[in-house]
């Protein structure tokens, strides 16, 4: 049978297909997150290829966006989460990296002062995204919330 | 006079001297922030060389830590805020960059959905650092709060 | 339906298609800018994939150049604005980067002297392009005009 | 004599010494430019090591800032004008490079449309720096003005 | 005959096809290792393209997963074992490289102290993979076991 | 007092001083590990600058090797654990990275199969070093033992 | 019409098609240069994609080599002249870069001594290629001839 | 004796010392070339550290510029001729590399057409430097003259 | 005719096609070298795309392996011999580069001591490959034999 | 005692000191190799810092060249054998790397054909250096002789 020589759809490509279908269907990321009852940032990242979905959630997204089966399959695959150096130059993403350049050493110093020698986990970790109204211009508010892991032998 | 041939103390070196003096004096970053009545993350970043201090604040820190005059002078200088690729490999700092690799495209997508085409400013921007107790292990909570800037011609 | 497995046309490719169609149609960038009543540099950048167009403007360009629907769709998408290191070696573009190598530190020093600690925004920012006649050879005159943003916590 | 084994003072170091002396003397870049009757951006770049000064100008700056003789000598030397990749990550300088990433291809296209195949010279070239008041926040205005050079065999 | 112009299937692609077929068939890596009676880590690496299989083993895998002939052929080819810098940024793989950054110099020092000047072979070398239950959370246990090779002229 | 202008001794330099003193004193790493009753690999890594020592342990090492006070101080400092790309080319260390190139994707696949989506922690992590006699040449046996961390929102 | 969705043929590809057609037709570069009455090095560079041809010249080449219309169109397009780092490792091309490594600083020093502060233009610039017979082995003689441009504000 | 622990003066440093002494003595490169009766470009390159001088020539230069003995010694040492990527960004030197980017593939094609498969030697190789008067601005004329070496097994 | 728009087959691809055909035909590299009466290493390198073959030799290989005409054509083309950084990480190839890291400076020193200032040519150069039996394990013996070229102006 | 704060002399520096002393003493590498009765290439590499010497050999070299004790100590230390990318651009060393670019894939293919899947060891490995007279110009002959290691689990 023909499947013996076909690799699964790449998750990056699946992510772009999802995004295209989402735009054509006039749906927001928030609506998709609601459809599978998952947090907003997690859902967006997962649909862009950074987390695997359960079969049930992938199927729900597939129905909502009228996706082909191999896209639905791809959404469930275990990702490679590669650091794309080129994406990091997009101005909207770059500002985060720049802020880490300015505040990274300070955050490291404060983690060590408050918690001891260790790290904030990026695995046991969640991210919230919010808008805060402000008369001087509304603000993007992003909260990183990760478990402290101490160097433990 | 001898000053005609001497450059000011490099701010990175000044930052390491401040850190050394702070440890020897048994002072926390929080105590230094309090001494100049500035936010914690800002103060830590500034003393590590990422922001200029006012003459008054620099002098207060100099007294608190018994610093030489050229360190106090250096703290007031305008910094180069260079992206140190090597520092980014420290595990405590790396986790932040890794998280941006995983969640960066999602944050970009959500900023555009919620605010339109633009960025979260890294200049009109502040960072909070917190500890949240959790029975499964306490958590590091970091809040990034920046003004939205739309692409405006 | 077949759309369930198709990603939108890449904006770089759309830009090259626009450029090809423009040349074949014998139209200048200025004529396209006029057709949508937008500034010249902005229009050229947007059509090359660096800014999203409104549906109305994309449609006007599509008619002017007889473009397919997926090109028109692509012009409206939110771009990734990636720093292409290789393009920066084209001699016409390289001269700008070289000039920044020579004058960048001076511009930084003057911004800080005149405005204080901060940056010239590249988001709230516009660019003008002009030709100035000169008996020793005409000159390219480019004006960068961006809002000053001070480091504000 | 001892000079047989001593290299001249490095121009980058000389630039940092000049900047330190300038700050300690409370002088602006504009005052130094006036002292040698040269344009502001040119003077700032030259004193930071990017252009050689005449003996007369170097000597005038030396007197104004009480510099040692080897600094005055260094200011007159022919520079290497190296592209410092790390400086390019300073946020104030980075915004210029980012803007070139966004508008560089458009500027290239417009130069070719208006002038033909060639470049804007970065040698026969000048830069102006201005502040424009604006109720929404003052603006940095930078004008690049270079001779067009056509590819000519 | 048409084969005169066709290159063999790339081993990386063959590896992705194997992985896709494995998932669709609901088989574990352990089951495939058992099918050819080879160690678990070796089999997984080989099927992902890092070691050549014998014709017999490739054929057994081909039957188990209903693979096309050119996939079966590709599994037997001699690999290029290239260091993929981008894969190294996947968080699951990155942790190993990070651990080498922290413990590499120590392991070098201990190899030299215990064995003399030389290396642990990565060719005469095997890897075991295990799960160890632990009330604080189960642990991944990986054993590297390589022949010591002394610098011998 | 003079300390107001002196940074602490760099931990890499302290590590080289410890190593030199150890060789001159004819002591093994194992003897130093025993002196502070810590595991062998941990102790070696820590003395080379990768982990902070307690004041008591640093002092014990200082006495054992007749170290100056600033070396003893440096051993207690919080490290930057930077990935030194150049050290990774040393043949003894390179073999580990090469092995990860060959077996990394397999280890990732097996971690996901056995544990689900997540990583082996490099923080809650230990390393053992052993020699196993073998008639074909003794073998280096290194065990990596880290807690599994699942992606948990 | 179908052209609404097709980009022009890439100039690098067009160059490889020209080269293939040239070899199949048994024509030398010199014969092609003669056919359009242009210098040898210029013609070769232009046909390989580094300079735009006039419509007339492109058409003449198209007839001489029986090229398709989109190749002829591509030859007339404005090029990106990108620095291909990989091509620079070809031994025949590498020797030129190596020679610049050895003699570049000397050429810079001599340009400044003879002409003052400035550059040899690479735009107002031509290259000749010659063979000189020599009993010790014939020699390649390449002449670079560019206008001096002084740094002029 | 003290020499048992001193390395020879680095040739790059020696080159900078020679250049400094040359400027202070008001001598041109041409005068130094004449002093040792060697070609101009060769002498300049050699004095900047790219070729070893004979003892006699080094001594003559040492007398002409009143150099210390260790500079004279350094001039005679065998050089490492390293490709300095940073120097290659100096505008005066960069133009040569840019020209190779544009004309390198053409020169390769012409060498192969005229001489067969091989290279122009960069070892059996000389460089001439000239000024040619031109009413449109004088020109820098540089001639590269190297023996053709064919790939010969 | 359709050839007006087709580039010749890439030599790397041709090399992979040759290798595939060779394996399928059960032929060794040595048999192919014998078929065209050329040295073993030269033939292998040439068939992998690193040297051009004569029409006669290409045709003989084409018959021996039943290759299509465009493969036979490709084997005769002049190659680009690019340094593939990624191939250099294959363990079998890496060991050679590592050995150069260890012995390169020594080989340079010995070439200069024995021959004077110059290089071993990599163009007038041949490589032999041999197996030497050894009771401790057979050995790979590779001989590099290149003409000495002295720096000659 | 003062040694408590001093690291051992770096082996690269020690290598440069040895080389300087060797030149001043008018000794060849061959004479030094003879003095310690070791092979020529091995001795040269070891004295340049790539292998540790025994105390006896280091002492013999120290006497032959009148070296200070810390140089003699440094010669005995275990080296880091780092790949110096910059040294690889020296023309004499570069030719070897270039030859590997051209012949590396062929050598890999031949090793696999003759020996099976594995590598030529760079540890159980030796290098000979020879001069072969040739009427067309003497030749450098370098023999690499390493044990074959097969991938063995």
UniProtKB/TrEMBL annotation, chains A, B, C, D, E, F, G, H, I, J:
<dbReference type="GO" id="GO:0008824">
    <property type="term" value="F:cyanate hydratase activity"/>
</dbReference>
<dbReference type="InterPro" id="IPR010982">
    <property type="entry name" value="Lambda_DNA-bd_dom_sf"/>
</dbReference>
<feature type="domain" description="Cyanate lyase C-terminal">
    <location>
        <begin position="82"/>
        <end position="153"/>
    </location>
</feature>
<keyword id="KW-0456">Lyase</keyword>
<comment type="function">
    <text>Catalyzes the reaction of cyanate with bicarbonate to produce ammonia and carbon dioxide.</text>
</comment>
<dbReference type="InterPro" id="IPR048564">
    <property type="entry name" value="CYNS_N"/>
</dbReference>
<dbReference type="InterPro" id="IPR003712">
    <property type="entry name" value="Cyanate_lyase_C"/>
</dbReference>
<dbReference type="GO" id="GO:0003677">
    <property type="term" value="F:DNA binding"/>
</dbReference>
<dbReference type="Pfam" id="PF21291">
    <property type="entry name" value="CYNS_N"/>
</dbReference>
<feature type="active site">
    <location>
        <position position="121"/>
    </location>
</feature>
<dbReference type="Pfam" id="PF02560">
    <property type="entry name" value="Cyanate_lyase"/>
</dbReference>
<protein>
    <recommendedName>
        <fullName>Cyanate hydratase</fullName>
        <ecNumber>4.2.1.104</ecNumber>
    </recommendedName>
</protein>
<feature type="active site">
    <location>
        <position position="98"/>
    </location>
</feature>
<comment type="similarity">
    <text>Belongs to the cyanase family.</text>
</comment>
<feature type="active site">
    <location>
        <position position="95"/>
    </location>
</feature>
<dbReference type="InterPro" id="IPR008076">
    <property type="entry name" value="Cyanase"/>
</dbReference>
<dbReference type="InterPro" id="IPR036581">
    <property type="entry name" value="Cyanate_lyase_C_sf"/>
</dbReference>
């Amino acid at each position: 049978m023909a499947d013996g020589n076909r690799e699964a759809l790449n998750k990056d490509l699946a992510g772009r297909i999802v995004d295209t279908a989402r735009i054509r269907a006039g749906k927001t990321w928030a609506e998709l997150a609601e459809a599978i009852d998952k947090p907003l940032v997690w859902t967006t990242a997962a649909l862009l290829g950074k987390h695997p979905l359960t079969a049930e959630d992938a199927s729900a997204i597939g129905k909502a966006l009228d996706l082909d089966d191999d896209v639905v399959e791809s959404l469930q695959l275990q990702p490679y989460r590669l650091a794309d150096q080129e994406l990091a130059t997009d101005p909207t993403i770059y500002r985060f990296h720049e802020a880490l350049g300015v505040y990274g050493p300070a955050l490291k110093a404060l983690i060590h002062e408050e918690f001891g020698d260790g790290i904030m986990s990026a695995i046991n970790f969640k991210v919230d995204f919010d808008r805060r109204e402000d008369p001087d211009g509304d603000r993007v508010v992003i909260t990183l919330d990760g478990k402290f892991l101490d160097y433990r032998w």
